[in-house]
Amino acid sequence: MGIKGEKTKQLICRAAYGLFAKKGYKDVTMQDICMETGLSRGGLYRHYESTGQIFQEIITYLMASQEDEFAGKMQAKVPAAMILEEVLFRYEEEMMDSGSSLSLAIYEFFSNPPAAGCSHSIMQQYLASKKMWVGLIEYGIGTGEFRAVEPEAVFDVIVFSYQGVRMYSRLMPVDRAIPRRITGQIKEMLIGAHGKKEEI
Question: 51-195: what fold?
């Protein structure tokens, strides 16, 4: 596919992301995406066969972007505590931004039978995210920045807290103190009181 085709796909995914965040997954149609992008039905179907295919590509891209970010920073020997701080700050902002949350769309998408051509398992997304986070936590333990924690347990706290707040933020106002308390506890688990590793 040429540069023009790739730019069109990016346009489609950006527009679809906004629609999925606003309406959830099941209420977004290919016609909605045509209207949002200004593409004809033929122009849209030239790139994607269904909303499921578009949504799957968005999720795959988001996961790959974060995985590449973690891997690139660890390879560059960026301190684990710095990577953690940057990611948790971003998570705080995302937890407060209900308008960009895909949590409802993710629930709806993975609750339905898979569409043709879609890799349709929330467990696959969970395992990919776990691999990424466990790698960072083990990296931090190896550098001596993080406590000798159980990486998978810390990951579960991170993923379920994050997704839980994002889901609740669609249903009720969420005070900024809530994501701050959550990220503070995650840092406490990994680094210790006041951001310093406990003396052994």
Answer: Tetracycline Repressor; domain 2 (1.10.357)
